[in-house]
Design goal:
Elements: H1 2-12, E1 33-38, E2 43-48, H2 66-96, H3 105-110, H4 153-177, H5 181-194, H6 200-217, H7 219-227, E3 242-248, E4 257-263, E5 270-276, E6 286-292, E7 301-305, E8 309-314, E9 321-326, E10 331-335, E11 349-350, E12 362-367, E13 378-383, E14 387-393, E15 398-405, H8 422-427, E16 432-437, E17 444-449, E18 453-458, E19 467-470, E20 476-481, E21 488-493, E22 497-502, E23 510-513, E24 518-523, E25 530-535, E26 539-544, E27 556-559, E28 566-571, E29 577-582, E30 587-592, H9 600-607, H10 620-646
Antiparallel strand pairs: 1-2, 3-30, 4-5, 5-6, 6-7, 8-9, 9-10, 10-11, 12-13, 13-14, 14-15, 16-17, 17-18, 18-19, 20-21, 21-22, 22-23, 24-25, 25-26, 26-27, 28-29, 29-30
Length: 647
C-alpha cells in the first residue's frame, strides 16, 4: 500500500520544459505568405503568418465571470419558481383531500393549505355597512284647480296683440331708465330678436301648421280629391257628375262678385280670384286673393284695389307677375312676392290718365306668351271704350299702344254703295267685352262686343277686321280658342246660348241653348271636344262633342249653388278639377267624374277591340294629332248635315 501511495505521488509531479522554439513552425508545408509594401524602400517585404500562441496546459478553475453571475441568478429564480409551483401543487392536493394524513413534519411545514384560491364567493371579505335611516315628513299637497276654456281665432289674435303691446311697453320703460350708452346699444340689438310675432320664420311655420290642421280636419275631402272615382259612371250611359270638394271664401269679400279666376302657370295648386261688381250702383273697392288647394280657409296673398277688379291673368313665364283690370279703366301689375301685411300693397305698375288709361271698365287682360324679339314684357287689355291696347312694362311706367279700335261697322263699308250708318258713326266705338289670342298664331285674335258681334283681328294689320261673325243677339261675355285646333273657338253670350265657330265661316257650326244667361265658358285642357259653361241660374253644363248619344246634349247638367249666379269657370291644367265662382264671393272646387274627363286614349280604347298601344299616347305630338283628327271628323260630319238640311 505504501508503494502504491509513493507511485501516485510520483505520477502527480510532471516535469514541464519551456523552449523558445515555435512548435507550430514547419508543420504546415505551404504556409501562407503575406507581402506588405514598404514605401521608403519601394519594395514588398514578406511577412510570416505563423500562429505564435501555443496552449501547453489547460484546466477548469472556480473563478466566475460577470455574465456567469447573471446566469446563476436566473438559475436560482427558476429553481425558486419550480419550488413554489411544487408547493402550490401539494397545497392544492391537501386542500382537495383534507382527511389525508401527512407523513412527515417537513411536508406539513412546507404545505400551507390555502382557502379556496379561485372561489371568490367563499373568500369574499366582510365589510361594515352603515345602518339605514328613514326620515319621514308629513306635508300638505300643493293646491290644484281644474281650468278649461274655448279659444277662438279672435281671442288668440287679441292675446298676441296684448303680449306684443306689453313687450313694447317694457322696452319703453327700460329705455327711459337706462342712461348708459352701453345699455342703449344692447336694447337696440335686442329689439329685432324680441319681435318674434312679426318674424318671417314664425309666419312660415304657422302657414305650414295651418295647412296640416286643415288637411287633417277635412281628411275625407282630401281623400276624395286624390282617390275618388265615381263607379256609377259605368251605368249612366256616358253621363257624369261633379263632386263638390272645397269652398273658398273670406269675410272681407262677402257680398262681392267673383269677376275673374286664373290658375298660376308654375304652381298648379295656386290660383288667383278677383272680386268686384258688375252692377253700376254697387261699385266699391276691389280685392285680389290667391288661394291654394292645400289650404281653403285663408288666402295665401291678398291685394286691395281702389275699384272693383274685373279680370286678371298670371304671366306664363314669370309666375309672380299678376296683371289685372279694374272697373275705372285702370290696369295694374302686382308682384305676389311682396310681403303680405295689413298695410296696403301697392302695384309695381299702374296706368294713369297720362299713360293712356281706359275710360271704361277693363273686361279682360292677357299676357303675351312669346317674346317676339322684345326685351320688355307686355300684355293686352280690352275695354268698353272700344280699344284693344298693348301695355309694355318699361323701367318706370307702363307704355301703351292701341292695337285696334273697335268701330261699329267694318271699314269695307256696309249698306248700299258702302255708305256708313250715321247712327253707328255717332255712337262712337263698339264696347269690347272679351278677347282671346290664338294658341298657334298670336298675331290672330278675336274680340267679343256688347252688340253680340265677334271680330277677328290681327296685330300685324289693324286697319280693319279680318272677319265679323254675327250669331248672338246680346253681349258676348266670353270667347276662347280651342287648345288643340287652330281654327275652332267658342263664344258665350247673355242670349242663353253657347256657339261653336270655325273661323273660316261666318255662320256658327253648332249652337247650344242652356236656358239661361251664360256667364262663362272654357275648353278642357285634356280633350279637344270637351268644354264647360256656367249660367246665371247656378248650374254647370259639361259638353262633349264626341258623345255617342248626341253632341248637342250636355253629359253633365248639375246645380252647384242655390239662389246665386255663377259668373266664372276654369279648368285646372293638370288635375281633373274645375273652379266656379258666383256673385256672393264664393269659389267652389268640383272634381270631374271619369266620364267627364275622357281623353283620346280612353275613346280609342273603348272603340278598339284589339286594344291600343299606350306608349304611343305618352307622346304629346301624337296625342295632339289624334285630338285634331277627332275634332275635324266632328266638324266634317256637322257640315255635311248642314248641307243636307239647307239643300
Amino acid at each position: 500500500m505504501a508503494a502504491k501511495a509513493e507511485a501516485g505521488k510520483e505520477a502527480q509531479h510532471i516535469t514541464r520544459l519551456i523552449k523558445a522554439v515555435n512548435p507550430n513552425h514547419g508543420k504546415d508545408p505551404t504556409p501562407p505568405v503575406v507581402f506588405h509594401h514598404k514605401k521608403e524602400l519601394r519594395t514588398y517585404k514578406p511577412e510570416a503568418t505563423i500562429d505564435h500562441c501555443v496552449f501547453h496546459f489547460s484546466t477548469d478553475g472556480n473563478m466566475m465571470e460577470a455574465d456567469e453571475s447573471k446566469n446563476q441568478k436566473a438559475k436560482d429564480q427558476r429553481m425558486e419558481r419550480e419550488a413554489r409551483k411544487t408547493q402550490l401543487e401539494l397545497a392544492e392536493a391537501a386542500e382537495s383531500n383534507p382527511s389525508q394524513q401527512m407523513d412527515t413534519k417537513e411536508i406539513k411545514d412546507l404545505v400551507r393549505i390555502l382557502k379556496n384560491q379561485f372561489n371568490y364567493c367563499d373568500r369574499a371579505s366582510q365589510t361594515f355597512n352603515n345602518p339605514m335611516r328613514e326620515r319621514q315628513i308629513l306635508t300638505d299637497p300643493p293646491p290644484s284647480i281644474t281650468f278649461s276654456n274655448t279659444a277662438t281665432q279672435w281671442e288668440i289674435y287679441d292675446a298676441y296683440v296684448e303680449s306684443e303691446e306689453k313687450q313694447k311697453a317694457a322696452q319703453r320703460t327700460t329705455k327711459a331708465k337706462s342712461t348708459k350708452e352701453g345699455d342703449k346699444k344692447e336694447l337696440q340689438a335686442s329689439e329685432p330678436n324680441e319681435d318674434i310675432l312679426a318674424s318671417q320664420a314664425l309666419l312660415t311655420a304657422l302657414k305650414i301648421m295651418e295647412r296640416m290642421v286643415n288637411q287633417n280636419s277635412f281628411n275625407d275631402i282630401t281623400d276624395d280629391y286624390k282617390y275618388w272615382q265615381d263607379a256609377a259612371d259605368r251605368f249612366n250611359g256616358g253621363r257624369g257628375t261633379l263632386l263638390p270638394l272645397w269652398t273658398f271664401n273670406e269675410q272681407r269679400v262677402k257680398g262681392k262678385t267673383v269677376t275673374g279666376i286664373c290658375w298660376n302657370t308654375k304652381y298648379v295648386d295656386l290660383f288667383a280670384v278677383g272680386y268686384g261688381s258688375y252692377e253700376f250702383l254697387r261699385q266699391g273697392s276691389g280685392m285680389i286673393q290667391c288661394f291654394t288647394l292645400k289650404n281653403h280657409s285663408y288666402p295665401e296673398y291678398r291685394f286691395s284695389t281702389e275699384t272693383g277688379v274685373m279680370c286678371l291673368d298670371f304671366h306664363p313665364k314669370y309666375s309672380f307677375l299678376l296683371a289685372c283690370g279694374l272697373y275705372d279703366g285702370t290696369v295694374e301689375v302686382f308682384d305676389v312676392r311682396q310681403k303680405n301685411s295689413d298695410k296696403k300693397i301697392k302695384p309695381i305698375y299702374k296706368s294713369t290718365v297720362k299713360t293712356g288709361k281706359h275710360t271704361d271698365p277693363v273686361w279682360q287682360v292677357y299676357w303675351q306668351r312669346s317674346d317676339n324679339g322684345s326685351k320688355n314684357l307686355n300684355f293686352f287689355s280690352v275695354s268698353s271704350d272700344g280699344r284693344v291696347t298693348n301695355w309694355t312694362l318699361s323701367k318706370n311706367e307702363l307704355q301703351y299702344n292701341n292695337v285696334i279700335e273697335l268701330k261699329p261697322n267694318d271699314s269695307e263699308g256696309s249698306g248700299e254703295g258702302g255708305k256708313e250708318d250715321l247712327d253707328a258713326t255717332l255712337a262712337g266705338l263698339s264696347g269690347g267685352t272679351c278677347f282671346d289670342f290664338n294658341k298657334f298664331d298670336e298675331n290672330l285674335f278675336i274680340v267679343g262686343t256688347e252688340e253680340g258681334k265677334i271680330k277677328k283681328c290681327s296685330k300685324a294689320y289693324s286697319a280693319q277686321y279680318l272677319e265679323t261673325y254675327e250669331g248672338h243677339y246680346m253681349a258676348v261675355y266670353t270667347v276662347c280658342w280651342n287648345h288643340f285646333h287652330k281654327g275652332v273657338f267658342l263664344s258665350a253670350s247673355a242670349d242663353w246660348t253657347v256657339k261653336l265657330w270655325v273661323h273660316t265661316s261666318k255662320r256658327p257650326l253648332i249652337s247650344f241653348d242652356v236656358g239661361s244667361s251664360v256667364g262663362d265658358v272654357a275648353w278642357a285642357p285634356y280633350s279637344s271636344t270637351v268644354f264647360a259653361a256656367v249660367t246665371s241660374d247656378g248650374r254647370v253644363y259639361v259638353y262633349d262633342l264626341d258623345n255617342n248619344n248626341s253632341k248637342y246634349e250636355a253629359i253633365c247638367d248639375q246645380p252647384v249653388v242655390k239662389r246665386a249666379k255663377l259668373t266664372k269657370i276654369t279648368f285646372n291644367p293638370r288635375d281633373p278639377i274645375i273652379l266656379v265662382g258666383d256673385n256672393r264671393g264664393n269659389v267652389a272646387a268640383l272634381k270631374l267624374s271619369p266620364n267627364l274627363r275622357r281623353t283620346v286614349y280612353d275613346s280609342d280604347l273603348a272603340k278598339s277591340e284589339k286594344g291600343v298601344d299606350k306608349a304611343l299616347y305618352d307622346d304629346p305630338v301624337f296625342v295632339h294629332k289624334k285630338e285634331v283628327e277627332k275634332l275635324d271628323k266632328i266638324i266634317n260630319i256637322t257640315l255635311k248635315d248642314r248641307e243636307l238640311l239647307d239643300g
